[in-house]
Amino acid sequence: MPALKDRRRAQSGATLVELLVSLVIASLALALIVGTLSTGLLDSTIAKRNTAVQAVLQYEMETISASKFDAGAATYSDCFATESPTSPIAAPSGYRTDCPSGPYTLRADVSWQPLASAPNAVQVWTVKVTSWPSDAAIGSGISLYKIDR
């Protein structure tokens, strides 16, 4: 009879403890995989946003550099579509105003003030980029000096 009992034990299934241990191991592996994928997705989204912000800043710096020195220059805002780049970009109605409805995700606010030491000859232009529609600032912005020559 002992041979029959040993054979049944060898053919028996997994115990509850073995099943629980394997379930915990599988759950940890799945959690690590999901965490890695979500971190990668977040990193790529942030990289895409930062690349778009750099392009907006470069565009605004070139626009300011290409314009003539004007003591009566107006401040303005530009809206940029990063999710649908083929859509037209309509200018907002004024400085720091809402972007028109659409896929606009970045707004650049461009302003200037005269330099205190040379108010008639030097302007300090400031470009700040905000996320639209949350209006959260992205970075600290940049400043450029424009000199009347």
Topology:
Elements: H1 2-11, H2 16-66, E1 76-81, E2 104-115, E3 118-131, E4 136-147
Antiparallel strand pairs: 1-2, 2-3, 3-4
Explain how this protein is built.
The protein has 149 residues and is of the alpha+beta class. The model has no long low-confidence stretch (mean pLDDT 84). The chain is 41% helix and 30% strand. The longest helix has 51 residues, at 16-66. The protein has one domain (2-147). It has 2 helices and 4 strands. It has a 4-stranded antiparallel β-sheet, covered by helices on one side.
What is this structure, in a nutshell?
With 149 residues, the protein is of the alpha+beta class. The chain contains two helices and four strands.
**Overall mean pLDDT score?**
84
Major sheet details: 4 strands, antiparallel
Strand order of the largest sheet: 1-2-3-4
Ends apart, CA distance between termini: 109 Å
What are its keywords?
alpha+beta, 2 helices, 4 strands, 41% helix, rod-shaped
